[in-house]
Amino acid sequence: MPNTDLISLRKYQLIQLIASVLMVLIWFLSNQGLLFWDDFGYLNLANQINQGDFQITTNHFTSRIALTYPVSWAISAFGVSPHSIVVFHLVYYLVLLNLAFWLGQKTSLWTGLIAGVLILCDYNLIFFGNHLFPEMPLTLCIFLFLTSYYLLLRNEIVPRIAAFIGALALFAAFLLKTTVILLLPLILFLFINDRRQKRNRAFWIVFIFLSLFFFVLNGLWYEEVKGNFFFRFENIADNHVATPKTFFDKGGLEILKRLTYLPLLGFLKGGFFIPLLLALPSLLSLKRSNFKLDQPEKIWPVAASFLLVSFWFMSTSWRFYSPIPTENRHIVFFIPVLIMSAATYWPKMSLFEWMSKNHVMKVALVGLMLIPGYAIFKSGDNNFKQMSSLIKSELVDNESAQLVITDGRTSYGYAYYYDLKPVEDMYLWFSEVETFEILNSFDESAYLLINPANFNEDYNDTENYNKLIEQLQISNINIGLLKKEGDVEFYLLTK
After folding, report:
1. I need a labelling partner for 177 at 20 to 30 A (CA). Which of 83, 402, 469, 482 fits?
2. Is the Cα dihedral 450, 453, 459, 464 positive or negative?
């Protein structure tokens, strides 16, 4: 292992502080605004909580209360803005980063430095730290569970406290997203392995008791309110609808593709391949004896291996075989586990010592810092600032009722631009409404608001928009450009 005495603890802590400050800057500058259905959907639910109108329904997003309630507190305290709605995501991200540095102090400073830099520079973590998805808090919860177990293996935590932290973290993860079930095979393995090794008995007694307690408590709440102990599970199953990204509705050939090479193609997107590639040697070098976890640091590659296998083959439904879609966002919580696998493996390699002495590490650091730079550079690609400016100047300030034809995201989340206040303005999505319905919706004039960056090709938005323009022209509708900001165009439609 390279000599870490060259880095004093004081210098290490200074690097940790600098990394934390950099994270805040990256988070602030890379914010893209509200871009996805999830952003607008969760924000709307948070606003309902503040208005006293919130209730859990068949919309399975409403059950993710560990996400929506913190957002409601944030907008209540700081108002509604692209940064205020994800301020708790920044907190989760900072805790994750500093946990990695803290673990480095307990093992190897190089481990902490590698893990800290990789977490700071991971594109997926930067991205989901700025959007209202449950992935960031879910990632922290699962990392907390694994950290508590790791400390247990190192005999650096009271078993009952480790069990409490682990059970509470997984319950919070469950209240965020039921994708946490991908951990079940790993938890079962850890339990069986510890029983065989005759260790950690107190941990498992408390962990199992608390996990069952939280599960039953949650189920009894649903039984009381919804009349069904398993309401959430059945609701999720009922919400399994066919989309281009699902597989349960596809034929055997598509399922075979999903179980073979499609996950590999998914790993190549969004920078996920970087932590996976760095962790791969630690996974491939695992021996049968390593699964006994006599070496505490082996928990990371062992956990990563189980998570990857679960992702590859597990079903997300008990009614039919439904492997999880290959989008990286569903497995963002794998990333810190992969990073810790790499961070505990590479410092022990002679190659790493050579790299650290020959400035290769400095070059690698510069290369990694290009990733947050890229995220900042790309933050304006979706024209959110221009869209927000145009809507507020041309529509929000106009008190008369208006009809606006626009894209799906804007039609779904336009309330954000009105500070979530009820308005008489009507927004229609041109891919959802037939042209004759649009023509019948206004007497004299309407507006057309176009942001090409928001077009969703899963719904053929470009083709449908072109058809709309063609049919408006055939119907002798005048299309006059009123204002343009960047790529966002605002038209007046008159008969």
Report:
1. 83
2. positive
Q: For 200-231, how does the pLDDT look when each residue is reduced to its tens digit (9 = 90+)?
A: 999 999 999 999 999 999 999 999 999 999 99
Which two three-digit tokens encode residue 88? Answer: 């708790």
CB count in 10 Å sphere of residue 437: 10
Model-wide pTM > 0.90: yes
Cα 131 to Cα 54, 89, 339, 469, distances in angstroms = 21, 8, 22, 32
In the structure encoding, which two tokens stand for residue 203, read together? 């941990």
> Quick count: other Cβ atoms within 10 Å of Cβ 13?
12
Residue ranges per structural domain of the chain = 4-380, 384-494
- Better-predicted residue by pLDDT, 90 or 244: 90
Residues in the chain: 495
Res. 322 pLDDT band, cuts 50 70 90: confident
Question: Radius of gyration (Cα) for the chain, nearest Å?
Answer: 25
Strand order in 445-450's β-sheet?
Answer: 426-429, 403-406, 445-450, 488-494, 478-485
Identify whether the C-beta of residue 492 lies closer than 8 Å to the C-beta of residue 447.
yes
- Rounded Cα distance, 37 and 45, in Å: 12
State how far the Cα of 385 lies from the Cα of 34, in Å rounded to an integer: 10
pLDDT tens track for 387-419: 999 999 999 988 788 899 999 999 999 999 998
Q: Which two tokens stand for residue 322?
A: 């439904």
**Residues 204, 163: contact at Cβ < 8 Å?**
yes
The distance from CA 271 to its chain's CA centroid, rounded to whole angstroms, is: 14
For residue 115 the two structure tokens come to 């893990």
Residue found under tokens 């699902």: 246
Structure-token pair, residue 125: 């973590």
CA distance 470 to 476: 10
162 within 8 A of 203, measured Cβ to Cβ? yes
pLDDT band at 11 (very low <50, low <70, confident <90, very high): very high
Determine the distance from the C-alpha atom of residue 169 to the mean position of all C-alpha atoms in its chain, rounded to a whole number: 17
The DSSP string of 441-472 is T-SSEEEEEE-GGG--GGGTHHHHHHHHHHHH
pLDDT in tens, 140-189: 999 999 999 999 999 999 999 999 999 999 999 999 999 999 999 999 99
Burial of 286 (0-12, 13-18, 19+ CB in 10 A): middle
Q: Which residue(s) pair with 488 in the sheet?
A: 485
